[in-house]
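Handout, section B. The chain below has 145 residues.
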Amino acid sequence: MLGPTSPVSHLFDAAGWQKQERCEPSQKAVTAPELAKSVIVEFGGLQVGSTGADKEQAASNVHFYPVARPEVSIVVEAWRSQFGQLCAVATAHNEHIIIFVGGGGKYYAFTDPDEQLYSIGQTFGEAMERLLLGLSFGSPIGRDA
């Protein structure tokens, strides 16, 4: 999920992350709930990074949920026909962002209070770099018609 050469691995180490020695599921072959469970098993309860000015926008802190939170997915129902089921795995930026994973391993950020959804990474590592290093989210994704 997060390689040792990732530019954010030191932030995970500083937060007390202990890499799990287990076989990771193929991101192309599992569902959003399975991927969410994998993230929570690996990072559940961990608080990584801090908010503040950074590269392209403010950097975010990330707080991984200690347990699955399926009820949180109600906020992304307006995008369900585009992405199918999205499962919440963390909050970011002092709980103003909710991080979701979809089937196939893509990651999304739902921002509050503007209630927009952004694609933030094709992989866990890419999503964490975008959040923790303050890289642009790009344009919001339009809601289902």
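Note. The chain has four helices and six strands. Compare this with the example in section A.
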